[in-house]
Design goal:
Elements (H helix, E strand, L loop, with lengths): L1 H58 L28 H4 L4 H28 L19 H6 L3 H10 L13 H18 L9 H5 L4 H17 L4 H28 L1
Helix pairs in contact: 3-8, 3-9, 5-6
């Protein structure tokens, strides 16, 4: 009897273990089934809401406005112009791009004029004729650029602004001596306070690769000299005064010849 009871007890325990296993297997299955039903219900609700939105768009198409992204503003590298300042009346038949190109050219011509006047006022002499810059900014045949190519004018200007900043100025016709002069000027200008982002490379001038940058550097050099208290007007006045004296002497000579 005891053995039978033990056998029955074991069978009951085995039955309970089997029920637990089946329950542990059945529970995830039930949970997955419930989850699938809930997802199906949510999908149906989303489809219904999408249908409502479509119906709303069809019934009132003008009530919904779509904003178009604004195009990125163009950034000018060398010369900065504000596109907002460009008026349609100023442009005329030009496109906006053509108008900005024209403004760049005018800016370069303005800096050329300023740079030439600056060098002549410092050296108190005319370094080239007063021919205007080419409207297309063609620097292959420009009298002012030609006067700068050998570097002599630049070195003389630098020595006037800062005495003995360049110890030797080469007057040779050799090309490498001209490039050496330009390099000496750039080194002296750097010591004078001209920052590298405003300066230029030797090839920019000697090979005419970036003449506008040369003009810009000279304009910034003038500003630095002005900040140091160097008076360019006195140079200009002396030059003008000598010119007026020569004119007066010429007029007197003409009057004397007429009297005779």
């Amino acid at each position: 009897e005891e053995e039978e009871e033990e056998v029955q007890g074991r069978q009951k325990e085995e039955g309970r273990d089997e029920e637990k296993k089946q329950g542990s297997i059945a529970q995830p299955v039930v949970e997955k089934t419930i989850q699938k039903k809930e997802e199906a219900v949510e999908d149906e609700e989303e489809e219904e809401s999408d249908d409502d939105v479509v119906d709303l768009m069809i019934s009132s198409p003008t009530s919904i406005s779509i904003e178009q992204p604004s195009p990125p503003q163009e950034q000018q590298a060398a010369v900065v112009f504000d596109a907002n300042d460009v008026n349609a009346s100023d442009i005329g038949e030009e496109s906006a791009d053509e108008h900005l190109v024209r403004l760049k050219r005018e800016k370069v011509v303005e800096e050329r004029t300023t740079a030439k006047a600056f060098l002549e006022s410092v050296l108190q002499r005319q370094i080239c004729d007063n021919s205007a810059a080419n409207e297309e900014n063609d620097w292959e045949e420009d009298a002012f650029v030609d006067a700068l190519l050998d570097g002599v004018v630049l070195c003389e200007t630098m020595n006037t602004l800062s005495a003995n900043s360049i110890r030797k100025i080469n007057h040779s016709r050799m090309v490498f001596k001209h490039m050496e002069n330009i390099g000496n000027f750039l080194s002296a200008a750097d010591g004078f306070g001209l920052r590298s982002n405003y300066s230029f490379q030797t090839v920019d001038l000697f090979e005419r690769q970036n003449i506008p940058q040369v003009f810009s550097a000279l304009v910034h050099l003038k500003r630095i000299a002005s900040q140091r208290g160097i008076d360019f007007k006195s140079f200009q006045k002396q030059s003008e005064k000598s010119g007026k004296v020569n004119e007066e002497e010429g007029e007197k000579l003409q009057e004397g010849e007429e009297l005779e």
